[in-house]
Amino acid sequence: MIRAVLLDNEPLALHYFQNKLQAFQQIQVIQTFTSIETFLNELPMIEFDVIFLEIKLQELSGLEIADIIKTERSYVSVVFMTTYQEFALQAYEIGGLDYLLKPINHARLAKTITRIEHEFSIQQMLKQHAHTILNVQCFDQFAVYNNNRLVAFKTEKTKELFAYFILHPNIPIHRDYLIEILWPDLDYVRAKSNLHTALSYLRKALNTVGYNNCIVFSNKYYVFEKPNIVCDLYDFQKFYEEFSKLESPPISLIDQCLAIYKNGLFIYDDYEWATTYKDKLTKSYIELLEKGVQITILSDTEKAMFFLNRVLEYDPYNEQKLEHYLYTLIQAGLHKQAYSVFQTYRQKLKEDLALTPSSTLLEISKKLFAQHS
């Protein structure tokens, strides 16, 4: 449950907005205020996750109140609600999550609630990480942190060996297989010696941060018995598994997965053995984006186009996929967006490959845009 506080010097407006929030069960309004003085006096005793506040107040502005809150509690989401458009830039500059113009309709408020849920989930994850000794980052660059300090591995191969264990927890791995993938160009005797050295360094590094005996050796097999660590890859797997079970997953869940994935697995680490794993995650990422397009195409054009553009980035020259999305956009009534997507594709094809769209695609696009012009 996301705890909310409301602050507006107009009692009727406050009551009206509180009633609108009742449609969202994930939001619990714990307190409302019409007085800045009362709010500031009670602030130290109140625990909340989001505040909705008016820009134009009396003693202080909503911007000043937000600044006080964000200074003391950076994790609190601030949503402004006002009839004044001119303060939006300032609101975002001080860390506001959203800026609602009165009167606020249900659809616009629903988008805000989705943003709040996404931010709340991130803050919960950060709190969890803060109480965990070891934090392993797999997306973008592989890195390991101990109480927010980067763990320095003795050698690059020691770090790579740990990366392999992280991707294959609780699975018996034959010693010779580790030798083959980590030292493919060395003779067996030297490679075996290097493996033992890297394992020794890795065990020492893990022991230093309180993880003793998590690498077990038995009958030529090593097992990394996954200890209680925080790992972005494990978080992604958990959320993606939840996503896969739902026919119509919430956008907040898709956003969670995308935020964790960033640009992909081990982007800055040249681990050849991770290629298959990377490809599998990329497919999951594209599936998330495609589902995002499907869910938002009729309700949130901006979001749908964000998802769609990311999908096309991963396979920019696939005319069959492009044709499918042109039909999808046209059917949703998004003619300008469809035309823009086609023109972007045509320009990219020309600049990157010095080619033009196939005659088939040109004919299809001509018919599409002629029918709906």
TrEMBL record:
The keyword Transcription regulation applies. Keywords: DNA-binding, Transcription, Transcription regulation, Two-component regulatory system. It comes from the Bacteria. Transmembrane segments: none annotated. GO terms for molecular function: DNA binding. Gene3D superfamilies: 3.40.50.2300, Tetratricopeptide repeat domain, Winged helix-like DNA-binding domain superfamily/Winged helix DNA-binding domain. The keyword Membrane does not apply. It is found in: Cytoplasm. GO terms for cellular component: cytoplasm. Residues 3-117 form the Response regulatory domain. GO terms for biological process: phosphorelay signal transduction system; regulation of DNA-templated transcription. Belongs to the AfsR/DnrI/RedD regulatory family. This is Response regulatory domain-containing protein. It comes from Lysinibacillus macroides. The lineage of its organism: Bacteria, Bacillati, Bacillota, Bacilli, Bacillales.
